[in-house]
């Protein structure tokens, strides 16, 4: 395991994204490897990236300009600033609109055979989906969430009057028209016909009909958003 003396901490800035980050790197890491890691943080391409080292006051000291050298071979110290310059800004943004751009994709085997890739960095450091413990925790929470939805659905029946409460939206009243699985998302869903045209569809989703209602009166929500009970239609005077 690396000790404190083996690591150096930098503030990372770039000319692509406005946010800053603080990261630690091994002194034994080659500059080429550091660039690959900085791709994940800044979005700058390693091939067109320059790394300028500044002191804490922002005064430029030197560049990390030799990909074959190690980070420790430069006079780097913790708290310094790495100012990342993407020298090809046109390239950095050229894929913002990819509608007409032919796409080249590596096969899984080709990508895995490459060294110093973002994937390899994530595997080595157990980041994101490559962290078994974090993945298990996510799966456990998803399972608990779905069990909660199934339990809520067991208390809901077609033709029940209901109120629907979705985050950041006003509560709406309607009638349960559908309960079950749908083709567009996993899990159990509730189809509701609102009393007013405050919905999103006519009981259809992506061309498939699940229940009948006028256009803009239908909606699909998770069971946890639905409360059944004696909810009569509201008169206009009550709204």
TrEMBL record:
Q: Which CDD domains match?
A: Ubl_TBCB
Q: Name one GO biological process term.
A: tubulin complex assembly
Q: What is its main location?
A: cytoplasm
Which keywords has UniProt assigned to this entry?
Answer: Chaperone, Cytoplasm
An example Gene Ontology CC term for this record: nucleus
| SMART domains hit by this protein | CAP_GLY
> Domain of life, per the record?
Eukaryota
Domain CAP-Gly: start-end pairs: 180-222
Q: Where is this region: Disordered?
A: 131-154
Compartment(s): Cytoplasm
What are the GO MF terms of this UniProt record?
alpha-tubulin binding; microtubule plus-end binding
Q: Which Pfam families match?
A: CAP_GLY, Ubiquitin_2
Please note every region of biased composition (Basic and acidic residues): 135-150
Q: Where are the transmembrane segments?
A: none
Protein family per UniProt: Belongs to the TBCB family.
State what protein this is by name.
Answer: CAP-Gly domain-containing protein
Task: Please tell me the species this chain comes from.
Answer: Adineta steineri
């Amino acid at each position: 395991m690396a000790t404190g003396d083996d690591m150096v901490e930098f503030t990372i800035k770039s000319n692509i994204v406005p946010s800053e980050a603080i990261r630690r790197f091994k002194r034994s890491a080659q500059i080429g490897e550091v660039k690959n890691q900085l791709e994940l943080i800044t979005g700058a391409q390693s091939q067109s990236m320059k790394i300028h080292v500044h002191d804490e006051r922002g005064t430029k000291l030197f560049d990390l300009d030799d990909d074959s050298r190690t980070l420790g071979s430069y006079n780097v110290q913790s708290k310094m600033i790495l100012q990342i310059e993407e020298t090809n800004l046109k390239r950095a943004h050229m894929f913002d609109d990819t509608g007409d751009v032919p796409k080249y994709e590596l096969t899984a085997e080709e990508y895995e055979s490459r060294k110093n890739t973002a994937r390899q960095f994530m595997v080595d450091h157990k980041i994101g989906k490559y962290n078994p413990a974090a993945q298990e925790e996510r799966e456990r929470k998803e399972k608990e969430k779905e069990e909660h939805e199934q339990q809520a659905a067991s208390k809901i029946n077609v033709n029940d009057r209901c109120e629907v409460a979705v985050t950041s939206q006003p509560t709406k009243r309607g009638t349960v028209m559908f309960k079950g699985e749908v083709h567009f998302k996993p899990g159990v869903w509730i189809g509701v016909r609102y009393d007013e045209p405050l919905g999103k569809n006519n009981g259809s989703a992506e061309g498939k009909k699940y229940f009948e209602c006028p256009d803009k009166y239908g909606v699909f929500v998770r069971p946890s958003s639905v409360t059944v009970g004696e909810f009569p239609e509201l008169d206009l005077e009550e709204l």
